[in-house]
Amino acid sequence: MYDTLNAFRILLNLDAVSLRTCEEVCVLWRRYIRSEKVWKKIVEKAARKSPILVKQNGWSQHLTTMGGQDPDNVDVYRQVGETFFILAQDCCIDSLLVQ
Q: What class has domain 2-97?
């Protein structure tokens, strides 16, 4: 359990490119990232830091914390997370990328 908790904490602090790379390591890692809803938690964390960016792009519809509903496909969170990180980099919002 201790190793799982540490892995989870590490994954939550990765940028989108690194997390996607972790998904590609092996089926076990991909399943873990999906089952623990790591992408969703990263998007929720980003939404707390920049709710305006999330609302402007319509991502709040996928977040229950912002009045939306969970999508049927968890890949939505990966797409939102990757796009968010790209926008954050383009806008030079370093404080949103990893903390």
A: mainly alpha
- What is the average per-residue pLDDT within 59-80? 82
How far separated are the first and last CA of the chain, in Å rounded?
Answer: 24
Q: What sign does the dihedral 79-6-36-23 (CA atoms) show?
A: positive
- Single out the residue of 75, 89, 8, 4 nearest to residue 46, CA to CA: 89
Domain residue spans in the chain?
A: 2-97
Q: What does the buried/exposed string (b/e) look like for 78-98 if buried means 16 or more CB atoms within 10 Å of the residue's CB?
A: bbbbbebbebbeeeebeebee
pLDDT in tens, 8-29: 888 888 888 889 899 999 999 8
pTM for the whole structure: 0.75
The answer to whether 16 touches 84, Cβ cutoff 8 Å, is yes
